[in-house]
Amino acid sequence: MRKRLLFWLVPLMGYGVLWLIFLTNKKRYLGTPLSDDSKPVVTVFWHEHILMAPYCWRFLRQNRPDAKVFAMISEHKDGEYIARLVEHMGIEAARGSSTRGGARALIEALRRIQQGWDAGITPDGPRGPRHSVAPGVVALAQKSGCHIVAMRYTATRYWRLKSWDRFMVPKPFGTITLEVGEPFSVEKMEYDAAKELIAARLGAPEN
Question: Could you tell me the pTM of the whole model?
Answer without folding.
Answer: 0.90
